[in-house]
Specification:
The chain has about 325 residues and is of the alpha+beta class. The protein has four domains: about 1-35; about 45-85 and about 150-165 and about 275-315, no CATH class; about 90-140, Triger factor/SurA peptide-binding fold, CATH 1.10.4030.10; about 170-275, Roll (Chitinase A, domain 3). It has eleven helices and seven strands. The strands form two sheets. The chain has a four-stranded antiparallel beta sheet with strand order 4-3-6-5. Strands 2-1-7 form a three-stranded antiparallel beta sheet. A hairpin with a 2-residue loop joins strand 5 and strand 6 (about 265-275). Helix 3 (about 65-85) crosses helix 6 (about 125-145) and helix 7 (about 155-165) crosses helix 11. It is elongated. The chain starts with a helix and ends with a strand. Residues about 1-35 have low confidence and may be disordered.
């Protein structure tokens, strides 16, 4: 009996001392005007979130500066952890240890190096274990209630591709055919003048209706003359700058030239203009991944809304 009374007296003394300390500290802090008194900012079922919890979270989440947004995220996480516990989803100490060992192995770190890395982030190993356990638990919950059963079939992918082909368009391409009156590398002014005059005369013959392909075969000094001057489809911005400039406003069937380039004088005709689209097979995996992520996001949103509707939540912030 005396022992119990003694223990009770000690406990009362500790409580009185604690209150006395808070009163003194609170008064000093009030004068200084620098301390924010901790308080409950949210209740999630039977669990609470304090202002200090929010401030700690904000130190980790430097991408979000709005306390209310941070708190909403913490409420969602708290709801998920409650759901995981209720459904027996947990991470054992062994699994946690193996997970940390795997992280160290993938980063080629010793235990000492790992703890030093944590210290740079102001974390102890025990604090990290708590955070990792939560992450692993949430991941398992997500896989079971959100990811599981989701799929995207090829018909969905094809339908999206057909409806959004503009998203998979490549840069515009221009098909060009040209005739080149070549100029020697170290041509004299007279040779340059002669080449210019020849190109101008050929351009005049073209305007008068002579067949461009025949003139290419007979007068072009370019190796492409063997292909009737066909340069194929050229992507905008990838042709010889002088030819690019000359052809930029031409429509199919229209001519430009003579255009002076390093190798001589060019006469060109635009044959076709197209905006190619990436083949379905090339973008199929990309679309499938995107649609799957959309489904997961939508399913996850509904999952969280369901948890909120089934829970008692007080947001006091």
């Amino acid at each position: 009996m005396n022992g119990m009374r003694k223990a009770a007296s000690c406990l009362i003394a500790v409580i009185i001392a604690a209150f006395a300390f808070c009163a003194v500290a609170g008064s000093a802090e009030a004068v200084a005007g620098q301390v924010v008194v901790d308080r409950v900012v949210a209740v999630v079922n039977d669990e609470i979130i304090t202002m200090s919890d929010v401030l700690r979270e904000m130190q980790k989440r430097t991408d979000i500066t709005d306390q209310r947004l941070v708190l909403e995220g913490m409420i969602d996480r708290k709801l998920q952890m409650i759901t995981a516990k209720r459904n027996g989803i947990d991470v054992s100490e062994r699994e946690l240890t193996e997970g940390i060992a795997d992280i160290m192995k993938r980063n080629n770190m010793s235990a000492e190096q790992f703890e030093l890395a944590l210290a740079k982030e102001s974390l102890t190993l025990e604090q990290y274990r708590v955070e990792l356990r939560e992450q692993m638990t949430l991941s398992r919950l997500f896989n079971k209630y959100v990811r599981s059963g989701l799929a995207v079939d090829e018909a969905e992918v094809r339908a999206f591709y057909d409806k959004n082909t503009k998203q998979y368009s490549l840069p515009e391409e221009v098909k060009v055919r040209h005739l080149v009156v070549t100029v020697p590398e170290k041509a004299s002014p007279a040779q340059v003048t002669a080449a210019r005059e020849k190109a101008a005369a050929l351009m005049e013959r073209i305007r008068n209706g002579e067949d461009f392909v025949r003139l290419i075969r007979e007068h072009s000094g370019s190796p492409t003359a063997k292909q009737d001057g066909d340069l194929g489809f050229l992507q905008r911005g990838h042709a010889i700058p002088e030819l690019e400039e000359a052809a930029k406003n031409l429509k199919p069937g229209e001519f430009a030239g003579p255009v002076r380039c390093d190798d001589g004088f060019h006469i060109l005709r635009v044959e076709d203009i197209r905006t190619p689209v990436q083949p379905f097979e090339k973008v199929k995996e990309e679309i499938m991944k995107m649609l799957f992520e959309q489904k997961m996001e939508n399913t996850y949103r509904v999952f969280l809304q369901t948890l909120r509707s089934e829970s008692h939540i007080e947001n006091r912030l």
